[in-house]
Amino acid sequence: MTNTTTQHTFLDTPMDTSSEPNAPDPTAEAALAAHEDGLLSSTTSGGIRPSQRTWSIGELARHFDVTTRTIRFYEQEGLLHPERRGQTRVYRDKDRVRLKLTLRGKRLGFSLAEIREVVDLYDAADGGGEKQLTRLLGILSDKREGLERQLHDLTTMQRELDDVESRAREALARLKTDD
Predict the structure, then answer these.
(1) pLDDT band at 24 (very low <50, low <70, confident <90, very high)
(2) Phi, psi for 125 (deg, rounded to 5)
(3) Taken in order 73, 76, 80, 85, is the CA torsion positive or negative?
């Protein structure tokens, strides 16, 4: 029996895609990266990826519950780089992981440019690294600040609505008592 060790250099956050692939992942909602089936930044002790399976565009679309048009769009944007066999696109593990990261990034509100930057750093570091994680933390911090500003604005707006509603109810009550 072979002794296999797994190294995770991106973020060790499991992502279960057995149910809804785009459903929020409670263990990693704030993280862009995932580790699934040993494909994301994992290698065996011999440095060999556990899987070399390929997927068609239709298989990926069904797996991630997106349209083939969405996948082609991400390809046009340079986020996916499938092989071509004639007119057929052939997606490998790396493309599948990049699609997963892209979909997670979009769900978290990342722009395509931010997603591309983090995913490209993943590629450059062959599975992650300090530079990628530092940039990811910077993007997450920026997103959090933006959400806090929006939350403050919404709270202020809600108070203003409550005030207007209260005055309108008082005015209506005065009108009814004057009748």
Answers:
(1) very low
(2) -95, 5
(3) positive
Q: What sign results for the dihedral spanned by CA atoms 24, 25, 29, 35?
A: negative
85: enclosing H helix or E strand: strand 83-85
Cross-strand pairs, 85: 88
- Please tell me the pTM assigned to this model: 0.58
**Is the Cβ–Cβ distance between 67 and 61 less than 8 Å?**
yes
Closest of 49, 67, 48 to residue 57, by C-alpha: 67
Segments in 21-92 forming alpha helices (H):
57-64, 68-76
HSE, CB side, 13 Å, CA atoms: give it for residue 143: 19
By residue count, the chain amounts to 179
Nearest to 80 by CA among 141, 36, 68, 160: 68
* pLDDT, tens digit, 9 for 90 and up, residues 97-120: 899 999 999 998 899 999 988 888
Here the tokens at position 46 are 């011999």
Structural contact between residues 91 and 54, judged by C-beta atoms closer than 8 angstroms: yes
Residue 70 to residues 67, 139, 162, 164, Cα–Cα distance (Å): 5, 24, 41, 44
